[in-house]
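Tutorial, part two.
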Amino acid sequence: MSERYLKRSWRQVKLISKDPLLFIVIIVILTSLILFILFPLFKVITASIFPQNSFSLSVLAEVIGSWYLRQAFYNSVMMGALTGFFGVAVGFIFAFTMARTNIPFKKFFHLIAIVPIISPPFIGALSIIMLFGNNGFISDTILHLTNVKIYGFRGLLFAQVLTFFPVAYIILRGVLESISPTLEDAALDLGGSRLKVFARATLPLAVPGIASAMLILFIETLADFGNPLILAGSKFPVLSVQAYLQITGMYDLPKGAALALMLLVPAFFSGLIYSFVRAMTAISAVIFLVSSSWSLMTVQIMSQVESGRLGAAAAFSVILVMIILAAIIVIRSILTLRYGRFGGTTLKF
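Running the prediction step on this input gives:
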């Protein structure tokens, strides 16, 4: 069987080599995968088990033996699971409403739903503070509440659900739109109520998509850095923030690498369950790789947050959102003028 597999693989390689452009693209992709994913992962592992240029598990033992860091691990996993559950619930409601009802202003609600995806990493947390904090517009100006506890577990969970439910919405809307309405119509014709049709026909068909969405939200919550940095606080530690603090605050690269390795474990095993691993980290990579001679806006936002200048951070966030929206509109306009129809369907925003 292995010989047959090798022959088939070699035959595929020869077919690919006959198309120079495809061959070059594959080589570039493989090189990028090795250079930007596998090599950094290798460096993280070596930094954690070779702290003094010699093999040692002392750093990992110290991390595992620390009650506070173990609590950060449990908090990260719990936050990922709860965000996956509630984010998928909210995303499913949005997706079902958009796919199965004829409500007005669908495009507007679709745009509102995807805004968190294109927002900077910190804007969700800043928005929650300005709306529901002690001096927030809703909590103080409208509801006149005092001593509002927005920091910690509840505030972070709210921010994570608000940030990541659009991912579940996009996935589940595609799943629901792929389910033929004729199945539901047939079930209704046979005398089933709408609730029974939903529970016995629509929902079971959407279960694979729901599971995939929960997995993705779980992994993205583990990898998130912006919301926990602002809202988690010291009473609710999470691994992503603790790894950052170990490297930038304690100047302890081996321990930061060990925490990053711990963060990878639940994400890796979650990916193995569905044979799908997708972990996006953007701002955490930007922080350590940007030269002091360059100034990225996401880094500026974080520096303003760390300095306590939330107004300036919010202003930078709004500017970045406007830049992203303008780029989307420009690209859409260019493609519409050039092609009119793209991929056989009319371009939609």
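Residues 67-100 form the longest helix (34 residues). In part three we will examine how such features are distributed along the chain.
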